[in-house]
Amino acid sequence: MSDKPSVLFVCVHNAGRSQMAAGWLRHFAGDDVEVRSAGSEPADQINPAAVEVMREVGIDLTHQTPKLLEYETAESSDVIITMGCGDVCPVFPGKRYEDWKLEDPAGKGVEAVRPIRDEIRDRVAQLVRELVPGRA
After folding, report:
1. What is the spatial distance between Cα 103 and Cα 61, in angstroms, rounded to a whole number?
2. Integer Cα distance of 102 and 87 in angstroms
3. Which helix (H) or strand (E) holds 94?
4. Which of 37, 82, 93, 127 lies at a 20 to 30 A Cα distance from 72?
């Protein structure tokens, strides 16, 4: 069992918001946090606009793939952050839950996705400050 915190980001398709959040968390926290992401109805691929806006800030999402939310993944995560996935995420006592109200980047162009990326960056930076003091 690892002593570092694990964070699970969940959205519907695991193709935009949750992937950008996971990318930012890996960027800010490095190996100090276990990063996970999943979706209730995973898409076939990562949203190309999300890939592009993250590439603009030096974060590569091209090797990521949307994953289905598994009960065990949620159960073994310390922090679960939902982003518009509704009630599909199981609830476990003792977990930290946050629901981030974020615009869905699906079907939007790069110009519209940049502000979503930046809002996610700010929220993830705050999360890292709370989980790994002195890191973000």
Report:
1. 19
2. 16
3. none
4. 127
- Tokens representing 28? 């800010």
For the chain, the residue count is: 136
pTM of the model: 0.93
CB 47 within 8 A of CB 103: no
Residue-wise pLDDT for 14-31, tens only, equals 999 999 999 999 999 999
- What residues does 45 pair with on adjacent strands? none
What DSSP character marks residue 54?
H
The catalytic site residues sit at 11, 85, 89
Question: H helices within the chain, ranges in order?
Answer: 17-29, 48-56, 71-75, 110-131
Please, how many CA atoms are within 13 Å of residue 74, restricted to the half-sphere of its CB?
20
